[in-house]
Design a protein that fits this description.
Elements lengths: L1 H27 L7 E2 L6 E7 L3 E7 L10 E8 L6 H5 L16 H11 L3 E10 L4 H7 L3 H15 L6 E7 L3 H9 L8 E7 L11 H11 L4 E7 L5 E2 L2 E2 L7 H12 L6 E5 L2 E6 L4 E6 L10 H4 L2 H7 L24
Parallel strand pairs: 4-5, 4-6, 6-7, 7-8, 8-13
Antiparallel strand pairs: 1-2, 2-3, 3-5, 9-10, 11-12, 12-13
Helix pairs in contact: 5-6
Length: 337
C-alpha cells in the first residue's frame, strides 16, 4: 500500500511539473493585438499607411510559434521600383496572374528562413513607397532621411517586448531607402545587425560617407554583417537600348564600394563558375557579383534564386541550409496560393 501511495505521489509531482511547464510556455506565446490571422500558415499580419505616402505590411509568425523568450529578427524589406507588397510577397503561378507575383517570393523565402531558424522569431516588414519608387519618394521629400529613421524606430518600438535585432534590406530602388537612412545618421546604431543590398546599391557614394559609416559599423561588433549582391549590368539591353548609362548600374557601384572598403579591409577573392565572391572581416562582409557572360537581365533572378535567403544567413551556421545562391529555389513549398 505504501509503495502504491508513493508511486501515486510521484505521478502527481510529474504531472504538476509538466502542467506548469506547459502553462509557462503558453504564457510566452504571443497573439498580437491589431493583427489578423492569415489563412496562410496562421501568420499574423497587419497592413496600414504610414504618412507620408508609405504603405506597410507586417508579417509575424503564428501565435503558437511567436515566443517572447526567443531572439527576434526584425527585417525591413524596402520594395523594388514598380512592385506592390502583394507582388513582392509572391504567389503560386496561375492563369491570368500578373508576372510580378513570381519574381521575388520574399514571403516564401521568409518562411524557409523560419523553418531553418526555429529558435528565432522572424518578423518581416514590407515597405512600399508612394508611386512604387523609393528614389522618387525621396526626391519629393527633403526631410526623407528623418522620415525613414522615424519609420524604422516606430516599427521597432512596436516589438520592443521582443528586443529585436534589426535588418535593413531592399531590392532595386529599395536600396534608396537604406541610403536615405544612412544619410540621416552620424553612425549606424548598434541594434542594426545586418544590412543587405539585393542589386540595390545604385546610389552608393563616398562623398556621402556611406563607406565610412558602414566600415565603422562593421568594426563595432562582430555580429554586424553586410551583404552586397549585384551582377554585370553594364551592357544589358532592353528593346534594343542599353538599360544603364555609362556611369550607372550596380556593377559599377559595387566596384566603387570595393575600392573604398579595400582601403581598410583585406578581402579574400573566390570565383566559382560565374559568381565572384569578395569576403572580409572573418566573413562579416560579402560581395557577390554575377559576371553575366550571356549578358542577360538578372535583376530579379538574383533575388528569386535564393538571393534573399543567402543575404539573411551568410556568415551564420544557417547559411548552408538556406540554399545555394543562384541555385534552384529551395523555398517552393512555402509559396502561398
Amino acid at each position: 500500500m505504501k509503495t502504491s501511495k508513493g508511486i501515486l505521489f510521484l505521478l502527481c509531482i510529474i504531472i504538476s511539473i509538466v502542467t506548469a511547464g506547459n502553462l509557462s510556455a503558453q504564457e510566452h506565446r504571443a497573439a498580437l493585438q491589431g493583427f489578423e490571422v492569415s489563412p496562410n500558415w496562421n501568420e499574423q499580419i497587419k497592413t496600414f499607411a504610414f504618412e507620408p505616402e508609405v504603405r506597410v505590411h507586417i508579417n509575424v509568425p503564428a501565435a503558437e510559434k511567436l515566443d517572447s523568450r526567443k531572439a527576434t529578427l526584425l527585417i525591413f524589406y524596402a520594395l523594388p521600383n514598380g512592385n506592390t507588397i502583394e507582388q513582392t510577397v509572391g504567389r503560386q503561378l496561375a492563369d491570368g496572374l500578373d508576372w510580378h507575383f513570381n519574381i521575388q517570393h520574399i514571403g516564401a523565402q521568409v518562411r524557409r528562413l523560419r523553418e531553418i531558424m526555429p529558435e528565432e522569431n522572424i518578423i518581416i516588414v514590407y515597405l512600399e513607397a508612394g508611386g512604387k519608387s523609393w528614389p522618387a519618394w525621396r526626391r519629393k521629400l527633403p526631410n526623407n532621411s528623418e522620415i525613414i529613421f522615424h519609420i524604422i524606430d516606430t516599427l521597432k518600438n512596436e516589438f520592443q517586448d521582443f528586443h529585436p535585432h534589426v535588418v535593413l534590406s531592399g531590392h532595386s530602388g529599395g536600396g534608396s531607402f537604406i541610403f536615405g537612412f544612412l544619410n540621416g545618421v552620424d553612425s549606424i546604431p548598434n541594434w542594426i545587425e545586418r544590412i543587405a543590398f539585393l542589386d540595390a546599391n545604385y546610389s552608393y557614394g563616398d562623398s556621402a560617407h556611406h563607406g565610412d559609416k558602414l566600415i565603422a559599423w562593421l568594426n563595432a561588433d562582430s555580429a554586424h554583417h553586410l551583404s552586397v549582391i549585384a551582377y554585370d549590368d553594364r551592357n544589358i539591353m532592353l528593346n534594343g537600348k542599353r538599360v544603364v548609362g555609362p556611369d550607372g548600374g550596380t556593377f559599377r557601384a559595387t566596384h566603387r564600394m570595393l575600392e573604398r572598403f579595400g582601403k581598410n579591409i583585406q578581402f579574400t577573392f573566390h570565383q566559382d563558375s560565374t559568381i565572384q565572391q569578395y569576403s572580409g572581416l572573418n566573413n562579416q562582409i560579402e560581395f557577390l557579383i554575377h559576371t553575366n557572360p550571356s549578358n542577360n537581365i538578372l535583376h530579379t533572378i538574383l533575388v528569386e534564386r535564393n538571393g534573399f535567403l543567402h543575404a539573411m544567413t551568410f556568415g551564420t551556421p544557417f547559411e548552408s541550409d538556406a540554399g545555394a545562391f543562384f541555385g534552384e529555389p529551395i523555398y517552393s513549398k512555402w509559396i502561398q496560393p
